[in-house]
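User: Can you recover a sequence for this backbone? Please restate the input before giving your answer.

Assistant: Of course. Working from this structure:
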């Protein structure tokens, strides 16, 4: 992100202070929802108004607040005037209007109206949740771990109506070099009519917004974005124990539906286990056909696993792709697992051994 240079920043602050008395009758470049704070929520408003045209403003430098002399005729459903979405003042809401949000990110005018986040209720509202990590089974220094972030209706089986969604990911930054999102396989962006905004994630938090271009909602479920986390290059000095647990949380979610009304969405969290490079037993990331016994099948609350080779790690995935990991299994050939009570129906068990891995389908009653 481009930094505002010191001089511009001072001019901007002075200009904002001068304009305080005018209150609502100002356009603060980048504050597309006119709440006094420039952040990822503004992207949703620019997205919704995308392609709209209206009166130009007099000066269009993208930094200085300007008095509204000629408001636009279009209003957002919350009564905000579309003029705020034309952040650069050139008379059309388009791609360039995202730029002042990047440049002025985090600035506030005096007496902002901080947003209220109505938290979604798991099992009732749609959810924005982490799926199964993809990548090495034992993340260590320099590893790249990809984790899909799924946006789906209640219990993953209903669809979500969306024009845009903003959210933040908070994470423990001690062992993470960077995290980044992409929309390559996103159901929101299948037709390429969507834009992903993200702040650089280097302070334990990433703010993101995914918006459609214009009033152009989509209905669907599944992967909304993919998170890519890169682990620090040198863990030797950082990790005291064999492993560390890194927590990622999805918070501050605001979803706007086809009417640009707010839909509460439940957030989620995930814990990633990373390994000290000296603690990793070489793992064979290839399938094997060694005779591993898994019983009983159907199972109820526990599962026995007996392997002729040493078991290094076990992962269980339910039919919805939700993932449970038992990473701390080491040097055992016989393992008894307690199954979580909420895990019912078809599940997949992946067992990593020193000879390679196997995947088996089981039924949990
Ligand atoms: Ca704002
Ligand atoms: Ca514009």
């Amino acid at each position: 992100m481009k930094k505002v240079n010191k001089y511009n920043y001072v001019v901007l602050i002075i200009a904002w202070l001068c304009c305080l008395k005018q209150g609502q009758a100002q356009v603060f470049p980048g504050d597309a929802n006119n709440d006094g704070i420039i952040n990822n929520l503004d992207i949703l408003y620019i997205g919704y108004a995308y392609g709209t045209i209206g009166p130009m403003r007099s000066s269009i430098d993208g930094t200085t607040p300007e008095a509204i002399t000629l408001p636009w005729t279009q209003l957002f459903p919350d009564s905000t005037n579309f003029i705020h979405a034309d952040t650069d003042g050139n008379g059309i809401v388009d791609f360039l209007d995202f730029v002042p949000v990047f440049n002025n990110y985090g600035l506030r005018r005096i007496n902002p109206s901080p947003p209220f986040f109505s938290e979604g209720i798991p099992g009732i509202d749609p959810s924005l949740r982490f799926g199964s990590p993809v990548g090495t089974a034992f993340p260590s220094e320099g590893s790249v771990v990809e984790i899909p972030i799924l946006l789906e209706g209640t219990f993953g089986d209903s669809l979500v109506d969306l024009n845009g969604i903003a959210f933040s990911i908070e994470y423990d930054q001690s062992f993470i070099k960077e995290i980044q999102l992409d929309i390559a396989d996103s159901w929101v962006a299948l037709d390429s009519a969507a834009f992903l905004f993200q702040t650089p994630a280097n302070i334990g938090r990433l703010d993101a917004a995914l918006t459609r271009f214009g009033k152009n909602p989509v209905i669907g479920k599944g992967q909304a974005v993919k998170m890519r986390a890169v682990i620090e290059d040198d863990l030797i000095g950082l990790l005291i124990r064999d492993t560390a647990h890194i927590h990622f949380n999805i918070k501050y979610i605001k979803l706007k539906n086809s009417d640009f009304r707010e839909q509460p969405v439940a957030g989620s969290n995930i814990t990633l286990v990373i390994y000290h490079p000296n603690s990793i037993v070489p793992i064979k990331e290839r399938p094997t056909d060694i005779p591993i016994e898994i019983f009983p099948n159907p199972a109820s609350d526990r599962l026995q696993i007996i392997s002729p080779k040493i078991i290094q790690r076990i992962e269980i995935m339910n039919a919805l792709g939700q993932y449970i990991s038992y990473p701390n299994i080491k040097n055992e050939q016989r393992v008894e697992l307690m199954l979580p009570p909420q895990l019912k129906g078809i599940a997949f068990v992946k067992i990593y051994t020193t000879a390679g891995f196997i995947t088996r389908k089981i039924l949990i009653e």
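That completes the design. The chain has three domains: 6-103, 127-279, 293-364.
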